[in-house]
Write a structure and sequence with these properties.
Blueprint (H helix, E strand, L loop, with lengths): L4 H23 L4 E2 L5 E11 L2 E10 L3 E10 L5 E11 L4 E8 L7 E7 L6 E10 L4 E9 L4 E10 L5 E11 L4 E8 L7 E7 L5 E10 L2 E9 L5 E11 L8 E7 L4 E7 L5 E9 L6 E2 L5 E4 L2 E3 L6 E3 L2 E5 H7 L3 E5 L4 E6 L2 E6 L4 E4 L2 E4 L5 E3 L2 E5 H8 L2 E5 L4 E5 L1
Parallel strand pairs: 21-33
Antiparallel strand pairs: 1-2, 2-3, 3-6, 4-5, 4-7, 8-9, 9-12, 10-11, 10-13, 14-15, 15-18, 16-17, 16-19, 19-20, 21-22, 23-24, 24-31, 25-26, 26-27, 27-28, 28-29, 30-31, 32-33
């Protein structure tokens, strides 16, 4: 078929336009729904403008919702190098256009865009990464808060190839309910750190989180993080260096006023160049009570629960002291020695189980335990998930912080 010059020109424009439309359509991802089917990411795009990546996303909700937009940027090696977020309340039946700017621009070869709603957990780690710079490492972690506004503390622990703690630093932020907070933590021992682990802490207890050492300019640098409890106080550090032959050198001290439920970051260079090792002790404001590391912790609505017997991990199943937790949640406990049976009551609810059995009864209904109820140091220990089934609470296990999180 032969076309005139004018018709060929129109036809060429039509083809070019069709190709352009095709390219645009390919650049728009399929609409993706949030897990609760209320939040829908209709479309999104990203492009580099003046060296920065501009991200646009259209998000629609069926019913009114606080929506968190999380944007994750990757480099050519598939490594996360930038995380951005925005939290916005959207009225039901409306669409919100989010616009975010990523600083790394042309360095980003892939961009993930997620529209997120509320979570059941007290907090949830969404993304984490470590970005290497010339003189330091930058630990970046995005944490989504649950349904209660709270102080969130994040600790970054850097270890060497042998697993030894080299440097530990922390950051904290008060986060409103259902929002995302992005924490950035600087680690100076860039040449010694092989791996970085993040730990999220939201409890109300006081304890030593971690301590590490590295060498700078021929001297030992000590870093430590202490998690303070629900009372603001002065926390003191007593640092004792030792020579290679075990001789004690001049003691150094540091005192820091630490707000409630926040972190005390200690960074101290040991003055004596003869020091080959160092020990540190922390004390509360009285100077009498030493602050030490804690073991596995149980929290109920963020409040730490003191138990004689801490939780125990048995082949991947965390078991907890039944009496301490049930009584803290308003249940009465009775023990029958002859049959080794525990009976718990709360209102009209009755829970019954026998030591050594993997069967429990909740209001007469049979329930199978992951591991049998058992005695450890004369404490009846039951799987943590059983607490949820028995008392209607939500129970979560944070392996990094070794914390059982119970939410009523």
């Amino acid at each position: 078929m032969c076309l005139s010059r004018g018709k060929r020109s129109i036809w060429g424009m039509f083809v070019a336009f069709a190709i352009l439309i095709g390219l645009v359509i390919q650049s728009i991802p399929e609409a993706s729904a949030n897990s609760d089917q209320n939040i829908e990411l209709l479309r999104s795009e990203h492009k580099v403008i003046d060296g920065k990546m501009k991200v646009t996303a259209d998000v629609r909700v069926e019913s009114s919702e606080l929506v968190s937009l999380l944007v994750t940027g990757y480099n050519q090696f598939g490594e996360i190098i930038e995380i951005k977020k925005e939290d916005t309340f959207i009225m039901g039946g409306n669409t919100k256009v989010f616009q975010l700017t990523m600083d790394h621009g042309e360095e980003l070869t892939k961009v993930d865009i997620e529209a997120l709603g509320p979570i059941e957990e007290p907090y949830k780690v969404l993304k984490e990464t470590t970005v290497a710079h010339t003189d330091h490492l930058e630990g970046i972690i995005a944490v989504k808060n649950g349904g209660k506004s709270q102080m969130i503390n994040v600790v970054a622990t850097g270890t060497n190839a042998n697993g030894k703690v080299v440097e530990v630093r922390g950051a904290n932020n008060f986060v409103m309910d259902s929002r995302i907070s992005i924490f950035k933590i600087k680690l100076d021992a860039v040449n010694e750190i092989n791996d970085v682990k993040f730990t999220v802490l939201t409890d109300d207890q006081t304890y030593l989180v971690e301590t590490g050492t590295y060498i700078k300019d021929g001297k030992i640098v000590l870093t430590s993080v202490v998690k303070n409890g629900e009372k603001s106080q002065k926390i003191s550090a007593r640092v004792t260096p030792y020579a290679g032959n075990g001789k004690e050198l001049s003691i150094q001290t540091d005192t820091n006023f630490t707000m409630d439920n926040r972190l005390y970051n200690l960074k101290m260079q040991i003055k004596d160049t003869n020091a080959s090792s160092v020990a540190v002790q922390f004390y509360d404001e009285t100077g009498k009570q030493e602050i030490v590391k804690r073991g596995t912790l149980v929290t109920i609505d963020g409040k730490g629960l003191a138990t004689e017997q801490p939780p125990v991990n048995l082949a991947g199943n965390v078991v907890v002291p039944m009496r301490a937790i049930f009584e803290a949640m308003g249940a009465g406990i009775e023990w029958e020695q002859e049959t080794m049976t525990v009976t718990a009551t709360k209102g009209s609810k009755e829970i019954k189980l026998q030591i050594g059995s993997d069967t429990a009864y909740i209001d007469g209904q049979e329930y199978t335990l992951n591991v049998p109820a058992q005695l450890i140091n004369n404490n009846t220990m039951v799987p943590v998930r059983f607490v949820s089934e028995a008392l209607g609470a939500k129970v979560f296990w944070d392996n990094n912080s070794q914390t059982v999180l119970i939410v009523r």
